[in-house]
Design brief:
The chain is of the alpha/beta class. The chain has three domains: 25-177, Rossmann fold (3-Layer(aba) Sandwich); 229-405, ANL, N-terminal domain (Rossmann fold), CATH 3.40.50; 409-504, ANL, C-terminal domain (GMP Synthetase, Chain A, domain 3, 2-Layer Sandwich), CATH 3.30.300.30. It contains 16 helices and 29 strands. The strands form six sheets. A nine-stranded mixed β-sheet has the order 2-1-11-10-12-13-14-15-18, with helices on both faces. Strands 7-6-5-3-4-8-9-21 form an eight-stranded mixed β-sheet. Strands 19, 20, 22, 23 and 24 form a five-stranded antiparallel β-sheet that branches. 49% of the residues are buried.
């Protein structure tokens, strides 16, 4: 089964029901699934299929998501391209992962034309909303049937290639199979209680929102698309469309909580507000629970074992009728059905509850490997487990606690300091909107704990205030030796604070493995 089988499952619920809605109008299941099939047929008609790769360069737009699905339905691997990246970044990604066909919005026409000479493997470009490129989408699918006629991909075939963050060199391509995609849909509905989902896609459809939409489509739900994760747009859409399900990174949740329109917005339709992609401040999570009610839902995963290694469901945020203690709220939840999570030491021996070590997971969500990189694959995929590179522990109740990334660990004067612990304390200061803690070079200590802070609008605090706040709660070793207040922190396309980019400001090029 490919993505087409997932979509057809929803099509059977009601072909005339809106599948996707945006400011441009609504697309029914019959129209949307038919277009996916036509794109897949058109790709096959041009000799493209298994072993080839396709990508989409577009802002949030239903047509972009349907093109991505069409690529996968036709047996090609789909590469997610960031619309917010630079032309050089996009060209390198398209070349590195050998993209053969590119769908794009007209706004990117000049960029695509300029990149073409750098991409000898790129055989075809298709414009989603105009006449640019080799073909318009309308011309590309002309004469193709609404039912897919080609061979369906096998579960073991590659559905998508996702890029890692490139924190230790050039980004690697994580190959995800159709089996892993179907497994996510199954695990999602084992946990999520929403018989008729109405999802808001505020983050890029070409990335996480497009993956999260798949279980919604499998159940015959509706996805409302907005162009960006702006707090005002999110609040308006929740009330206007009676949204029951949405994903927001912590950064955007903080902005929603601080928005003046929040108090007057009807949030009663919400059943699940998924958060993840970065740790969330416990103090702000408590605020979100108070404002949104028992709907907060966290998934922990990573690119190599996508989306749902563990889940912290709304009920897990409570003990009885009271909001749970900080330690529970700071956890990542318990393993999803069919997933094994273990904590191991440097030698690979399993550690007992409460002991910190590397998190490893065995699941049908695991990647098939890194694209054309067997050495990197062997380093991460060992003994049937994905070795995540995350440090954590499992408590006596089976909840996983993420301590930090191995590479983010700060060693100062021989002591280990986990940035996430310091960030939790800093985030609890009433003037702090967001922060990131990194190790900076120090001649005496090796590394010094360094905090970069973005203040809430209208709030003031000095570096000395924040240092004293941390020192009272963490002591001298863990508290930041340096605090810098920046007007804004660097963020990814979905709003995740980029600790790597911050760390690079303090280290000479090549002096530390970023």
């Amino acid at each position: 089964m490919s993505i087409l089988g997932i979509l057809e499952h929803g099509l059977r619920v009601d072909p005339d029901k809106p599948m996707m809605c945006s400011e441009r109008g609504a697309i029914s299941y019959a129209q949307g699934v038919g277009l996916v099939a036509r794109i897949a047929n058109a790709l096959r008609a041009r000799g493209l299929g298994q072993g080839d790769c396709g990508s989409v360069l577009a802002a949030n737009d239903p047509a972009a998501l349907l093109a991505a699905y069409g690529i996968q339905a036709g047996g090609l691997a789909y590469l997610a391209s960031s619309a917010t990246g630079t032309a050089d970044e996009q060209a390198r990604a398209l070349g590195r992962f050998e993209v053969n066909v590119l769908f794009f919005q007209g706004a990117f026409a000049d960029r695509v034309a300029a990149m073409r000479a750098q991409l000898p493997r790129l055989r075809l470009t298709v414009c989603l909303d105009g006449e640019a490129g080799d073909l318009s989408l309308e011309a590309f699918v002309e004469g193709q049937a609404n039912v897919y006629a080609g061979p369906h991909p096998k579960l073991t075939d590659i559905a998508s290639i996702s890029q890692t963050g490139g924190t230790t060199g050039e980004p690697k391509g994580v190959m995800i199979s159709h089996r892993a995609r179907v497994a996510f849909v199954e695990k999602f509905w084992m946990e999520i209680q929403d018989p008729s989902p109405v999802m808001l896609a505020a983050t890029p459809l070409t990335h996480a929102a497009g993956a999260l939409a798949q279980p919604v489509f499998a159940r015959g739900g509706t996805v409302h698309v907005i162009e960006r994760a702006d707090a005002a747009l999110v609040l308006n859409a929740i009330e206007r469309h009676r949204i029951s399900l949405l994903f927001l990174p912590p950064t955007v949740i903080y902005r929603v909580l601080d928005h003046p329109a929040l108090a007057g917005t009807d949030l009663s339709s919400l059943r699940h507000l998924l958060y993840g992609a970065a740790p969330m401040s416990v103090a702000r999570l408590r605020e979100a629970i108070r404002v949104f009610g028992p709907v907060m839902t966290q998934f922990y995963g990573q690119t190599e074992c996508h989306t749902m290694i563990t889940a912290l469901m709304p009920r897990d945020h409570y003990r009885g009728t009271e909001v749970a203690e900080d330690e529970r709220l700071a956890s990542c939840g318990r393993p999803s059905l069919g997933t094994t999570v273990e904590i191991v030491d440097e030698q690979g021996a399993r550690l007992p509850p409460g002991r910190v070590g590397e998190i490893r997971a065995h699941s049908d969500l695991m990647m098939s490997g890194y694209f054309r990189n067997p050495q990197a694959t062997e380093a991460v995929l060992r003994d049937g487990f994905i070795h995540t590179g995350d440090l954590g522990y499992i408590d006596q109740e089976g909840y996983l606690h993420l301590v930090d990334r191995k590479r983010d660990l700060i060693i100062t004067g021989g002591f280990n300091v986990y940035p996430s612990e310091v960030e939790q304390v800093l985030s609890s200061h009433p003037a702090v909107a967001e922060c990131a803690v990194v190790g900076a070079p120090d001649a005496d200590w090796g590394e010094r704990v360094t905090a970069v802070v973005e203040l809430r609008i209208g709030e003031t605090a000095t570096a000395e205030d924040l240092q004293a706040f941390c020192r009272d709660r963490l002591g001298g070793v863990k508290s930041p030796k340096v605090v810098e207040i920046w007007p804004s922190l660097p963020r990814s396309a979905i709003g995740k604070v980029l600790r790597k980019d911050i760390r690079m400001r303090f280290w000479p090029v090549g002096s530390r493995q970023i």
